[in-house]
Amino acid sequence: MFDHPGKKVQTLAFVLSVLLGGAALVIGVLLAGTDVLISVGVILGGVLVAYVAGLLLYALGSLVDNSQEIRASLFRLENGDFEPEEPATPAVRPEKPERVGRRFSSDEGEKTWQCDCGAVNPNRIKSCSCGRSLDEVVANRLGQQEE
Ligand SMILES: [Zn+2]
User: Fold this and answer.
1) How confident is the model at residue 100 (pLDDT cuts 50, 70, 90)?
2) How far is the CA of 118 from the centre of ligand 1 (A)?
3) Which residues surround ligand 1, an ion (CB under 5 A)?
4) What contacts 47, CB < 8 A, 6 or more positions away?
């Protein structure tokens, strides 16, 4: 019964405005027999009052309507459509490559071997990108020492 009071007040404003204006018109016409000036005054004044009163009431209805919509939007913003986890998820994602990068950087501290081409490879990688294998490079250097 009292749902959407803003819309109901707006409707009420229109109905009351029409009823007041109509009543002023009827009373004015009924008074026409006694005094024309009073009759015209009642009609014009009554219609004006009906219009202004209706306008004010309609404005009040809009005010209630808008404030309810704003409150609902705020509630949705705070609790509903925008979940607090959502902004946290992209903040976590960059951490994963960071961790991987840290692991790689700590691996750089492990033992390495330098290929004849000049590239430095970690010991767990047995063949260089140039095609030489670790064993080849070691054998080659041992051979150079023997010469
Ligand atoms: Zn190499």
Assistant:
1) very low
2) 6
3) 115, 117, 119, 128, 130, 132
4) 21, 24, 25
